[in-house]
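sry for the spam today, last one i promise. struct tokens for design, 277 residues
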């Protein structure tokens, strides 16, 4: 048995502490700034901690601004995108994994290659298509657009998990009279739970933090998402830093809560095996 040298562990823990600080310091500064007054947040030199804690920025965001409507729009768009990407991704991944058909490899390659195309190049075509079918400036159009962006990666990722489930399980279920649909939902799906959870988180976070697609496909202020609504706080002559920081803190809480809730299901999926001994 090889014993790691103490110097190695010093390097590992130093790197971990550095990464922890690198990720937490911006969040700490954001939270601290959201609790400052409008004058203190732009004061120079800046203060690390607020001289007097105030929740005025949070109150104004929920009462004066249309933040609650933006919040509901973001929840609707992100949840729907994650649901559609995962639902279609599961069936597509099962099909790619279990069936051999002409063009299978080429189609998978095209799916993966589509992720290399910058999103800004696709905004124009999507704008034209949604306008043609009267889905421009609608949440439905935004959901469908973001689903097509997240779906290829979701299929690719879920296919890797389906491949780890032995074909013998499918054959045993078919001997018992189960259909392909039932096998996919009741046999394969529980065993790819880690991949499904990861897919849901990936699609949700990508949609939750989106600005480009919402900016180009939504013009009605009542249908704007939170990321787009936060940009309204940057004016020509004034930047509402306290409100921006408060809104950003509230935006961050949602994906963090989602991860904490789904974390135990992710671990459970890893520990449960497909074949019972």
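last one done:
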């Amino acid at each position: 048995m090889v014993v790691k040298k103490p110097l190695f562990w010093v390097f590992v823990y130093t790197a971990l502490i550095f990464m922890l600080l690198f990720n937490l310091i911006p969040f700490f500064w954001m939270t601290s700034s959201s609790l400052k007054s409008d004058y203190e947040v732009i004061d120079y030199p800046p203060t690390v901690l607020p001289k007097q804690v105030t929740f005025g920025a949070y109150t104004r965001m929920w009462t004066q601004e249309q933040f609650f409507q933006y919040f509901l729009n973001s929840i609707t768009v992100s949840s729907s995108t994650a649901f559609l990407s995962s639902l279609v991704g599961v069936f597509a991944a099962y099909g790619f994994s279990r069936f051999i058909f002409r063009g299978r490899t080429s189609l998978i390659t095209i799916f993966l290659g589509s992720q290399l195309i910058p999103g800004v190049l696709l905004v124009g075509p999507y704008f034209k298509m949604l306008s043609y079918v009267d889905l421009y400036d609608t949440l439905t159009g935004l959901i469908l657009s973001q689903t097509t962006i997240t779906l290829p990666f979701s299929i690719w990722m879920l296919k890797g998990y389906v491949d780890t489930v032995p074909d013998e399980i499918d054959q045993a279920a078919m001997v018992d009279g189960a259909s392909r649909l039932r096998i996919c939902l009741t046999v394969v799906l529980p065993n790819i739970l880690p991949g499904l959870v990861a897919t849901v988180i990936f699609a949700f976070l990508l949609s939750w933090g989106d600005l480009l697609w919402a900016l180009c496909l939504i013009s009605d202020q009542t249908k704007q998402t939170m990321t787009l609504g936060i940009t309204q706080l940057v004016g020509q002559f004034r930047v509402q830093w306290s409100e921006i920081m408060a809104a950003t803190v509230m935006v961050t809480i949602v994906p963090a809560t989602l991860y904490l809730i789904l974390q135990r299901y992710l671990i459970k999926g890893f520990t449960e095996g497909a074949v019972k001994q």
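The first helix runs from residue 6 to 34. ok im logging off now
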